[in-house]
Amino acid sequence: MSYIESVGKYVGMIRQVFSKPERLKVYYTRTLTEIETIGINSAGIVAILSVFMGAVISLQTASNMDSPLLPKYTIGYITRSSTILEFSPTIISLILAGKVGSNIASEIGTMRVTEQIDALDIMGVNSLSFLVLPKVIAAIFFFPFLIICSMGLSIIGGYYAVTLSELASHEEFVYGIRAFFKVSDITYALVKTCVFAFVIVTVSSYFGYFTKGGALDVGKSSTQAVVWSSIVILLTNFVLTQLILM
Amino acid sequence: MIEVKNVNKSFGENHVLHDFSAKFEEGQVNLIIGQSGQGKSVLTKCIVGLMEVDSGSVLYNGRDFSKMNRKERKDIRKEIGMLFQGSALFDSMSVEENIMFPLKMFTNMSKKEMQERADFCLERVNLSGRNKLLPAELSGGMMKRVAIARAISMKPKYLFCDEPNSGLDPSTSILIDNLIQEITYEYGMTTVVITHDMNSVIEIGDHIIFIHTGRNWWQGTKEEIIKTDNPEIIDFVYASKFMKNLKGKLA
Taking Cα atoms as reference points, which of A109, A32, A18, A130 lies closest to residue B104? Predict the structure, then answer.
């Protein structure tokens, strides 16, 4: 019953988030700030993770290719496909759910327990829209850039891992990357990323906004935000894969 | 004027406000006093619309808040200033940005005009020149004063203060009390202050409401509260040895 209640509360929250903003200029400025906070500030960790993720994928692929019938370019092909289709959009989104999600939940949760949200409400500001909408826009706008960078860096990581350890030549890896390429794979990945961006921001904001109590409860909300964002990402990933690829 | 009529509010089995009625007059400092857990904060949250009442009505100059649509409520809220117990300053904004925030959201003032208004409000609370400081760089008393400056920046008709003296030393408390009283008279606001502090009662209370078990137990002036023989008020007002001695001396 409480889950159904929570879903109802979440839907109600989303409706309020997308109600008409009071002052567009203020929202615009806030969106730019949020792009920096939740987007640009996440670039470093995304870059590091992506390079090593790509390197490990290619090394794992190479080490599992026992049959001499499999051409070496398969390493590049599998690295590219798994990176574009799953690893970059899904795994990086899960990482962002941890970094950005906990940040959002603790920020909004702290504002709740220190009565800053009450202050907004009393002024007549739609606190949900004011706090959450700029984050949603920033994430949906910027996460696709992060994921595209992640794809590129993963492939570069994979390339260096394989070529430096002489598991495949430069030509073989590059041929694999280019083989059977479909633009629709990128579209699929970016659609998924936008949905995940929405999920991360709104689920985390939900837990932050409805925090009750004190500092300890802010911590709990932050943890719940990460856990539930991750679960919802995995569920929507399954549904979207069924809908788009099948 | 704000009028509260037969307001009831419960949380599950816990009936917090029982048929509460009171009037808060314009141009006066109205104090709500009472022990912890008697419903003072709930009453204030019901009046400002942070909580919905179960029954009864809250009238702002005769307009029933509970029957207003979203836009009308929004308009009323622009006329309300509130000083929270913990100041509730936006910690990502500087002092000046905090004060300019409601102006940015709801007025068409130019940046220069907003700046001038912020300077004026800061001067009014004796904090000139502190524009660029962040809330984390301020003392408790300064934070309260900035919160007052933010509350008056939109020239509100109604000012609510939730325990403005909590956590402050006696001299800063008096400073805040006097500031609240001065701006109430200056702007002719309807001011409602929740407090436990008996100094505030004596210092600034024009009209005092004693809330007990969620009811309007007693109301009157500061002169009347000192003379009353209501046992609940005597228990509350003369709880400390100092006040008991003072009462003995006065008697």
Answer: A130
Q: How big is chain A by its Cα radius of gyration, in Å? A: 21
Query: Which DSSP state fits B136?
Result: G
pTM of the shown model: 0.87
Q: What is the pLDDT of residues A82-128, one digit of tens each?
A: 999 999 999 999 999 999 999 999 999 999 999 999 999 999 899 99
pLDDT tens profile B134-172: 999 999 889 999 999 999 998 899 999 998 888 788 888
For residue B82, which residues of chain A lie inside 8 Å, CB to CB?
A: 118-119, 122
Three-state secondary structure readout of chain A:
CHHHHHHHHHHHHHHHHCCCCCCHHHHHHHHHHHHHHHHHHHHHHHHHHHHHHHHHHHHHHHHHCCCCCCCCHHHHHHHHHHHHHHHHHHHHHHHHHHHHHHHHHHHHHHHHHCCHHHHHHHHCCCHHHHHHHHHHHHHHHHHHHHHHHHHHHHHHHHHHHHHHCCCCCHHHHHHHHHCCCCHHHHHHHHHHHHHHHHHHHHHHHHHHHCCCCCHHHHHHHHHHHHHHHHHHHHHHHHHHHHHHHC
- Please tell me if residue A113 touches chain B, with a CB cutoff of 8 Å: no
Binary contact (A122, B75; C-beta < 8 A): no
Which residues, at least 6 apart from A178, have a Cβ–Cβ distance to it below 8 Å?
A: none
ipTM for the predicted complex: 0.86
Q: Over B210-251, what HEC string results? A: EEECCEEEEEECHHHHHHCCCHHHHHHHCCCHHHHHHHHHHC
CA distance B123 to chain A (A): 22
